[in-house]
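Section: Multi-chain targets

For targets with more than one molecule, the full set of components is provided together so that the structure can be written out for the assembly as a whole rather than chain by chain. Components appear in the order listed by the source. The example entry contains two components.
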Amino acid sequence: MVYSKTVPWLLVMPTLIFLAVFIGYPLYSAFALAFSGDTSAFETFKELFHSAMFWRALKYTLLLAVVIIPIQLTLAIALALLVNSKFKGYTFLLYIISIPLALSDVTAGLMSYTIFAPMGYLNKVLLNFGWIEHPIYFFGFMYHTREFWVIVLTEIWRATPLVFVIILAGLQSINKEYLEAADIFGFTRAQKLFKIILPLLKPSIMSALLMRTLFAFQIFGVVWMLAGRDIPVLAGETYYQYVQLNNPKMASAYGVIIAVITLVISIVYNFTLRAKHLEGGR
Amino acid sequence: MKKLLVILLAVLTVMSFAKVYFASTQMVPAEERAFLLSELSKFTKESGIKVELLSMSYSDILARVEAEQKTGKVKVGLIGHLQGGLYLMASKGFLQDLSDVSFPGRTFLLEKYAYVNGKKIFIPWLQATYVMVVNKEAFKYLPKGLTKEDVINGTEKWTYDALYEWAKNLYNKTGRPLLGFPMGPGGLWHRFLHGYIYPSFTGAQAIKFDSVRAVEMWEYMKKLMVYVHPSSSTWDKMDEPLMRGEVWIAWDHTARIKQAIVNMPEKFVVVPVPRGPMGRGYIIVLVGLAVPNNAPNKEEIIKLIDYLTSPEVQVDILKNVGFFPVVKEASGAIPEGALKVLAKGVINQSATKDGIVAFIPNLGPKGGEFTGTYREAFRRIVMEGEDPTKVVKELGEKIRKMYKETGSSLPEPDAHLY
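Its structure, encoded as tokens over all components, is:
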């Protein structure tokens, strides 16, 4: 009896120890560091909230998430529907879409830089054709808006495949009988999409949205490579505070803010996007 | 007899495993660290002395040495750190007096800066500075009254106003901004602000932060920025923008422009920085080798210092990392080519009669906040257009508070003025 009670714990123990040592302890240390101050526990946060750079970083992080995620989700669903239609040559399209999955965010940023730099591919083509006389500048402290849209473009290209893969898997798990029944009842394509496919795809959409939103709040590599601190983001400021300014307390405070935001979003998503099962319902 | 032989063997075995823990804040980036490790392994092969390299940040090294000194368990035997940081450690009584350490036939440059209150706290190891690099094409667009020789030799005509006119000329004639600075988050732009342009305009790095001359300097920076390449705010190093031809005039640390000179020595010339109303402010980065109190294996440590300051290793360091020798005997061993181009520019800068030598201040854990303050001033005044008088007054208070809280001594040239 005792044996059957302890065995499950013994089996999960290695995972629990791993999590405790490599996730739990660093998490606890980061929180402890963020809340340690010479005069009070909230000293670091007071300084953080008074810093103009924090509010700029929060603004740009939210702005990037709000702009990128809807575009990515729409694009991923459209591409998944296209690939799922299994037209001739769809596997080739699948491979092309999946290429960015193999790239890190830093690589994607560097590739973008080589395209949009003053001496990059885009400017060279435009100059060679005589369409412009001087290079168009996309990066630098005078070109925030252009930097922002290049970052959006790069992130859409880099991270949409991740959402696409999850949506495609969800699409392929939809029972074809529903669609056959819809055909019999004379549903149009739009009706099939909005009445059958999208509701059944809700669990996949929720997983993809949740995962993509959590990653969006940790956006760093692409922004850092393309815009440095011209477009400050929360994760970038965390890095800057720790590595450049040797301020681990402030860096931990930024980390805590990112953790709290992502926790709140997970809870909101869970409540608002929870899908009800069509059969046997809950 | 047998017993004696066994004891001798045991002693030799222990000696052959003698280990020196070498904590260094320099040569931390991956390529530089790999180079230093290879030099140290050559030393181990020659001497049989093992060296463990501990790469550290500026705040970590102070914390580590302090902890070891307070507990009495000293493991780190040799410290390689900036002169300002070593002054701070010496002020806390952590370092040994190395006055009795000498190496026959070796003349150390800048040795006078190694003494604090009559005590020699370090042996000079490396020096570096920040220079301007000019693509020779840019000389075709010099403004009136400025010649190529003025720029190369750092005459009184090579001023910040002349730099402004030159950058403006380049922009108007080519249609492109061709002056660049490493303003990226990992760039050393803050060194330009506190160690170059501030002393050139105000005569000091920190104590005149909010002076009238400082406000004039910031007005100058605002007008100069119109002709600075906009991507400067994303660049951490200037070698690649120079090699790509994106900029024709750049300022950066010698180690960070070295690749451009090495790859294209015929294309570039290294020149002194311009002068301002008060003189030609420039930083000498002096790195020293210091020994903490009660460090174990002192004899082995001295052998390591001897190796690291030998002319051959000094020239190897110049070739691989871009730090310059501190040993006179090494300058004769610099090979012709790119390194001589680099060395000539550095020598010309230090030979200028109006030079204001600045040392990097060391405020221990507040060091990052100090450099961040200069960047904040730049961002608020130049990028965001805030009133310079208001910003320098606010941030000047912050800098004075940092010095009061840390008790750090003022760096040159401020110490001289104060």
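The first helix of chain B runs from residue 2 to 16.
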